Amino acid sequence: MKISDKDVAYVADLAHLELTQEERIRFLRDLNSILEYVDRLNELDTSHAQPMAQMEGLQGATLDSSREDILEGLRKSLPHDIALANAPDSDGTFFRVPKVIER
Amino acid sequence: MDLQSLTIDAARAAIQERRTTAFALAEDFYLRIEKQDPEIGAYLTLSKDRALTKAAEIDALAAKGEKLPPLGGVPVAIKDVMATRDVRTTAGSKMLGNYVPPYDCTAVARMESAGAVVLGKLNCDEFAMGSSNENSAWRPVRNPRDLSRVPGGSSGGSAAAVTANMAVATLGSDTGGSIRQPASFCGVVGLMPTYGRVSRYGLIAFASSLDRIGPLAKTVTDAALVLRTIAGRDPMDSTSADVPIPDYVAELEKPVEGLKLGVPKEYFGEGLDGEVRKSVEAAIQKLAKSGCEIVPISLPHTKYAIPTYYIVATAEASSNLARFDGVRYGYRASDAHSLSEMYRRSRDQGFGPEVKRRIMLGTYALSAGYYDAYYLKAQKVRTLLAQDFALAFNKVDAIVTPTSPTPAFKLGEKVDDPLAMYLADIFTVTANLAGIPGISVPCGETKEKLPIGLQILGKHFDEATILRVGGAVEQN
User: For residue B80, what is the domain's CATH number?
Assistant: First the structure.
């Protein structure tokens, strides 16, 4: 077993998930089975391989994933009412959420 | 109008020559959807107002005798992971059940600017995570070729809609095989372009270093036409590349004679279904007869592709899906008393089991103490996988393989075994990891009449060659 039920609870917490008891048992089993399979990566010597985090330097391509900030000609922001239209709860000006600070 | 044989050019020509109208054609398709789709489940939302308004616009052009744009009046449909302004976009998830985007995905906007009539939004696995379409929060899609079987995933609705003649062509997305595998299962053409070829602005992100948008269509020519429409630099997506776009349709005219095609032995080993092997090998033989040189090659790290993929993809997904918190849009749990409880319960209730499983795996792989062992390790193996292809493409012009190790499997067959489901992508994830383009083209059927797909992989930004080889397979 690579991970324990404690790990599952910890990771769920990091991921902002609550999970039912049933789901925790299920994911404990699934994650262990998947991670066991992933272990085959350790057969490979990767000491000379650079990590590939994203596609860059593709042949002939200019991927300007880093660029200067645009100072002028910015697109207009969404109008207020449209930006709030999909909100589960709003007061017309702000998004509304449950109380953050207990008094 | 015979919808079954209707291609993009045929539809446009019929409208241009006033043999039908775009409006009547759209209505024909809606009628067909109404009749066929209840048993298939390809559509989640119909955008009739938008479609018929566009159709009327095209008809006005045709009535004036003006030349129609390349997709003028052609009925198409869009996988529900692409934002459509004022048309509900759910990503197959309860999390976005009521989400109505205020803007259009660039690929969709380009289809419409080229005259396409967007009929509606297509079912898919939740957040494009799945290989069978059984992970849709709404309903599974059934394979129109055999209703007891899955259409593949995650773009199952996009493939099923084309096969069942409920759209002339569709857009799908491919993170680990999600265009090519369903295309193969449903017997249509599915093209995943090079990373950077098509803007992803407005695509609901799954794994940003892997995600692509591409067409599913009845013919290679139609796939080429759609690619030409959606390809190219977009200032709204900094990962879209500024690379010249060839005339893909004209390129199809070139002969395949003299092309060197690599056949990697790792794609023909254990686990490959006998009938799939026979059919793919026969298709390769025919390509040899058409004058292609067949070159045996090796891609030695292939067996590490699935474990690499499921670490990289889930790590990126866990980060991308962190945005769903029930505050600005999307599902919010109603029973929460504090902010943190609201986040957790909204995510718990809004996400389905496979999405949660992947968020858990990805969060674990990125967590302190495991980052180096899993995420960093997978990134390094990814480099080796990409090098396999770079070396192979020094010797060959394209690589031919089966798209999937098996034909379409039965609904329910793999739902209880996530690892077995992940292995359905074994021949497709490699191209996503390496950033190269791939296409699946029908190359035969099993005894049970299930479609089989041949996959053709190409060099970065060389969609023209794989389309050309695909065209030759289609001719044969």
Answer: 3.90.1300.10
